[in-house]
Design brief:
Number of helices: 6
Number of strands: 2
Mean pLDDT: 91
Strand content: under 5%
Strand order of the largest sheet: 1-2
Structural class: mainly alpha
CATH class: Mainly Alpha
Order of helices and strands: HEHHEHHH
Distance between the termini: 26 Å
Length: 129
């Protein structure tokens, strides 16, 4: 499997990530991996490689997102906020939106998880979480 440190067209990929994250409603969260799954693999990247690198690329896109992207709504696959500068702010913003954390600092993805733009389809929630 080839190694990719970034998507072939990082600008295009980042804009796709940001456009998708802008659709996450207040009070809901998604994960880096879910955002990657909702986007098609970039041209020239096979599916297996994309599954391996896509979530990291989403993380990179979120690290440099514009101010109008609700960055706080993207958390890790364990339902946790990744430890880094800004983690306290992220938790506060999510709590202000009504997202609850358990005693281990995790969000219940079955309760607060966003299933994507097709969330209204019956199988969407089960497919993604």
């Amino acid at each position: 499997m080839p190694r990719f440190s970034s998507p072939p067209d990082a600008i295009l990929f980042n804009h796709q990530v940001w456009d998708l994250v802008r659709q996450v409603p207040p009070g809901r969260v998604t994960t880096y991996g879910q955002i990657a799954r909702l986007l098609e693999a970039p041209e020239g990247v096979d599916e297996k490689a994309y599954r391996a690198f896509g979530p990291r690329w989403v993380g990179g896109a979120m690290a440099g997102c514009p101010d109008d992207v609700p960055w706080q709504r993207v958390i890790n696959a364990r339902g946790e906020i990744s430890l880094r500068p800004g983690a306290e702010t992220q938790r506060r913003l999510l709590e202000e939106e009504g997202v609850a954390f358990d005693e281990r600092g995790r969000v219940n993805l079955k309760v607060y998880g966003w299933a994507g733009p097709a969330e209204s389809t019956p199988a969407a929630q089960d497919r993604l979480f």
